[in-house]
Amino acid sequence: MRKYQQLAKEIIQGLGGAENVNSAVHCATRLRFDLKNPEAANIDSLKEIDGVVGVNPTPTQLQVIIGSHVGEVFEEVIQQGVTNGDAEAGKQSVASTTSAKKETSILNKVVDTITGCMTPMIPALTAAGMIKVILSLSTTFNWMSNESSTYRVLDFIGDGAFYFMPILLAVFAANKFKVNTSIAIIVVGVFLHPNFSQWVASGDPISFLGMPIQGVIYAASVIPALLTIWAMSYIERGVDKITPQSLKILLNPTLTLLITAPLALIVIGPLGNFAGQGLAWVINLMEGQLGFIMVALLAAAMPFIVMTGMHHALTPIFVASFAATGTESLILVAQVCANLAQGGATLAVAFKSKQKNVKSIAAAAGVSAIMGITEPALYGITMKYKKPLVAACISAGISGCFAGLMHVTLYVPQNSLMAILGFSGDKGTSNIIAGIAMMVMSVVLSFVLTLVLQKDEKIEAAPTEKSAKGLAVNS
């Protein structure tokens, strides 16, 4: 851990000092800083720091790209006095107030909010999807009968993450909208209450104070829960303003629940269900007869989408798809093609170069890309030499087109080589074969095309020493 101390110190200096940083969080490869004065940061200086792969300013954050060891660097940044944004997420501080006043577009706010609520659910969906894969394999190879007790237990374990997705979303949305988590869970839990579900299933009319409640089954839904907690954030603040100080502990939670839950059942839930059906219709349209064009375009454009950070905006689409059907054949399939193509192109650079440090950097970045982390490959190799990026985009587009034509489907949320475990499902061996062919095509085409396009002399000039140090640590 201590080897990243100097790197963290230099990054903080490049940001204008710890006093210029409201808070910091991180994702798989990037440190994400909320700055008080973005103009005080020296972006050119940050780019030259040993261990920094790239810098990506956005309207809401300054993102410093590190690589797969970002967690260790983040710990050192926090140790040197920068506020941990995750730990402070639930606190109303002056820093967060300052940050909230920054001018950002409505689109950026919406994307940031939805991503913050949905992204933490992906590990649960992955785990549940893997259980489903195991069940599919067990029946395919006659490991167990689908009538057996063991199978049935595993089946409802695998269904749990999808059925209770509204509850999962309530937890993360409560953190994002800064509302009481326990009340948020109870409000959304009303959607899933057995008595309500049975009432809906019976077909009998439901009403509250004479107002009709639409009979909707909300299990595995996404949008109704998200809209409910968003509305609750306003209701909770409004209740807090009107209740006497001495009675807040009693009245605040009671009134919030009493107002939000009926409103959710009468208005918000049905509207959210309607929006969810609309989103499902759009997804089906994109995955329809011309779906192969969408997969190809997304796969080819994915590196540029990653550069802007807008790949996070795609998360709600594939999460909604898994919520509705338990499968996904657009966003994640395109990401698998793009990531493996980046890996193939970068490995080709490692194979072709005669410089030891280029080989080391490219090999490490190539393996990282194949495992789903493309920033080291993208910023350290393919963008630098350009031809490998062209090769990766062309290859991803071709393999994406093939995947779309073959209707390749994923049963597990994965965007890397591990997606090979997610092709097993209801579509049988044909989907597995097509999925593997898609992955091999992505890597091999990109590798070969890079060897053809990239001139030897262009990769003999080694990357800067800072890039070498920053990327070699991934190996």
UniProtKB/TrEMBL annotation:
Domain PTS EIIB type-1 residues, every copy: 5-87
PROSITE patterns hit by this protein? PTS_EIIB_TYPE_1, PTS_EIIB_TYPE_1_CYS, PTS_EIIC_TYPE_1
Keyword Phosphoprotein assigned to the entry: answer is no
Q: Which UniProt keywords apply?
A: Cell membrane, Kinase, Membrane, Phosphotransferase system, Sugar transport, Transferase, Transmembrane, Transmembrane helix, Transport
Name where it's found. Cell membrane
> Which residue ranges does UniProt annotate as crossing the membrane?
124-144, 156-174, 181-201, 213-235, 247-268, 288-306, 318-341, 361-382, 389-412, 432-453
Q: How does it sit in the membrane?
A: Multi-pass membrane protein
Q: State if Cell cycle is listed as a keyword.
A: no
The organism's superkingdom is given as Bacteria
Pfam families on file: PTS_EIIB (PF00367), PTS_EIIC (PF02378)
Q: Where is the active site?
A: C27
- Full protein name: PTS transporter subunit EIIC
Q: Please give the InterPro entries that the UniProt record associates with this protein.
A: Glu_permease_IIB, PTrfase_EIIB_Cys, PTS_EIIC, PTS_EIIC_1, PTS_IIB_1, PTS_Sugar-Specific_Components
Residue ranges of the PTS EIIC type-1 domain? 112-465
